[in-house]
## 1
Amino acid sequence: MIKSMTGYGIATTDSGSTKYTVEIKSLNSKFLELSLRLPKAFSDKEFQLRTDCNKQIERGKVNLSITIEQADTQTRAAGIDTVLLQHYYKQLKQVADELNEPGGNLLQLALGLPEVVKFDEETLSDEQWKLTEKTFKQAMANFQQFRDDEGRVLENELKGRVALITQNLESVVLEEPKRLAVIRERLENFLSETVGAENIDNNRLEQELIYYIDKLDVTEEKVRLKSHCDYFLETLKSDDANGKKLGFISQEIGREINTLGSKANDAAIQKLVVGMKEELEKIKEQLLNVL
């Protein structure tokens, strides 16, 4: 079964005094591009988180963020940078005076500016990490479930596209006998008009017809195209299904379709070939998002 590279998972754990949130998002990419946004206290856990993501996510452009919210911000406040606070306050007061604006809430505004209030986030307790790790595992499970669900949608889409290619191939099989008869008639008419029917060497004509029709024969292309489509569907069902392998098979399908089109020499078959190419392009677009 295939998985989508697009995924989303979020989980939250609330211990009463602290709320832990882990969010994982991914888009398609040829490789794993992992971006982490962590609180400063988690700096020594970054390697472990990256290792876990490498093992479980495999490929994709991934953003992982962890946030911790304290119910009471005073419990984690370590102090106020008074020098920076005074600096901000003086600047705010100067601007307010220049604009003739009241400055009643300047102190409150200054307290909310960056680095004024210092928080104790330098250390991470074992209990905090256990709760965070639990939240991470739940978010990863939700993320993988999202990928599985999207993969099922992609699988059905791909099966439908391959089925349309196969239907067109079956139509080619029905059209081919008509094509050979038209080619034979066209050659005979051409020779009759150019050299005259009475001057045609029928034995030589039969030899040339056999040679020419053999050059336009698409039996091998039809067999290989059907085989590649079957292999594509088998790979979709297998446990080791992956976007790269399916991409290689789609390339082989494309080669047979192109050869079939170049040898068709028939408007009806060319129309069916164009339909196959359209479906194959849609398949290739979808495969870009398959893990």
## 2
Amino acid sequence: MGSAIYAVQLRRHRRARRYTLRIHPSRREAILTMPPRGNLSDAREFAERHGAWIAARLGGLPKAVPFAAGTLLPLRHVSHKIVHRAGERGTVWAETRDSGEKILCVAGGVEHVERRVLDFLKREARRELTRVSNHYAEMLGVKVTRISIRDQSSRWGSCTSAGALSFSWRLILAPPYVLDYLAAHEVAHLVEMNHSPRFWRVVGRICPHTERAKKWLDVHGNNLHRYGVRD
């Protein structure tokens, strides 16, 4: 790795058959997964052997954009400038200035700006994803039992056979049709718990912009992970 030092988070997974590395884009760290019978010595050797890969992937991440006054944030893919309103009551709300500029106002102490913006985005994501997920569930005659909002690094959403859906809050930063597609995708798993041609036919039947959304995520999805993090 040269003179650079990188922290590597080690995880043991009961289903892992070999050592693997991946990059968590929002936490900006490498994660090494080891099999149940693996040992720390082999894990360290594996990480060191792939040091150049780790350095290249971490160095290639898009520039971090922390939640702070002055930051431009793509709420629903529309640029909003974070503005600190220390003397006002409330938490976070959106406004449009006379000039047409969209702003996200954050009340209270400056030390609370980061947390309040994140909480606001999670609430908005939950509200939108709950609405569209229930809409698609009604179309397909299935039932959503729970919706969780997280910061998943390897996938945008997931679904269990019991009807529990999980989504990344970062979808609220994407165009609405992308969030809409992810909801349709996960709800469709309640009909087909796989990615077979039958599954994709279900998704295509209820979500006509599937291919458009998939292409947007392929091109721009990784960029969403830079918001709300610090270098």
## 3
Amino acid sequence: MVQHRYSLLLLIAGLLTAASLQAQTFPGYHTSQYAGIHAVPFNPASAAGSRYRWDVNIVGADAKAGNTYIKFNKASLLSGDSLKRFVDWFPDTLSKNQQHAWGSVDIMMPSALYAINERQSIAFTWRVRASFNGGNIQTSTANFFSLNYPNPRMYNRTIADEYGGFYGQAWNEFGFTYAKVFKDVGDHRWKGGITLKYLGGQAAGYAVGRDAAFVFESRSRVDINSGKLNYAYNAEMDAWDGSFGTLYSPFQNPGIGADIGVIYEWRPDSDGFGSYFEDDTWNPDADTWKARIGVSIVDIGGISYTKSLYAANLDMRVQDYDAHLLEKRKGESISQYARRMSTQFAHVDSDAGDKFYMNLPTSLNLMGDYNIDGRFFVSASATIGLLGGKKDDHKTNALTQLLVTPRYETQHLGVYLPFSVNRYGQADAGFGLRAGPLVIGSASLFSNLARSTVNHADVFVALRIIPIRFNRGSWDKGGGGIFRKRKNNLGCPSVP
């Protein structure tokens, strides 16, 4: 019975704490004019008019995880001891809202951006990504499984929930980006970019319950009066030994994806004398805008998978059922557990087919940026998940989030102070640092340091290679480019 209890607690924790889902990658730093290759996933148009002739990412990673139901004592998480309820972890038992979880892992492998000239750029990005989210369950349901399960006071009471689910996907992604300044008239410049992606699905799955109502008669006997459970995962998972290395194959389960974006720049000082630095550094014109706004839609598309033979859509209605049979047994593989579950309940929608299509976490990204004096900037960006809702089981959904970031920028140093709030009302303050080739930060660093308990966290780090300096005359500004200026610049164009 103890193992049964902890199996269900692990299920709740898996849905509500260990899930991962995408929001903004490299938050705060991602809107910088020095972000280069790291800005491309947020808006591919940012590659055009790059600050650098070329930019190479050696390796980078961005990871996030969070939930709305359970907060953890930070000291307890580092102790290595077993966690006790209301001592080490604290459920939000009084909430009137549904409970959710989210997160993501985004590993940027060797990737590169190259500026063909000051108006056009190309980029190649190689990313290994995972996106998971779950929940949508009532707080009362979460309480039932997390508070002294099975609580004798809840015997012979109906526990009902309309919907609850878990969705996850891990994939390899090769992206090919082209960006261009397509209009430059007076004070106004427009840039556009597109990234086409070749996707390789590594693992995907979903488990969704609908219209559930059940009654525990005792610690081990349950009546399930209504409910449907749909679950599926890709066939490769049947042979999985638990390590990602044995699962990873970049060209399996091919799919197609795309990002598309546009950026407008307002340049009220764009005509006049040139910069002192124009002959020494690649494209200082990249940040002579006073203000800019951008919009992009990213992660359009998805991947088709072959279902495991043990995927099923089940009618869960049953009376006087042994609740122990619902648990995953020690040493039981995923395929063995799925097969056993599929033999215990009636199948419905048997013509659902042997394939399922998993959508990427498609999102709308918005950005605004203001140049205060060439060193101090303030930006605002938003990510809006477009695949929320309860109708589609075959997706992960981006976390809707708003981010405001004051920043200080020089050629080799950037300091970022992101302030964010997400759709669940969780507010954070963080820190980011760009020091030469190193980028590191967290959008929740300061706020989590100030809290005694946490229910979400993130971190990002990247190592890159960028050109430090070019010799005089190493780039061609093109027609009329030498007549660009910066505010308060008193330099004059050279006279032949």
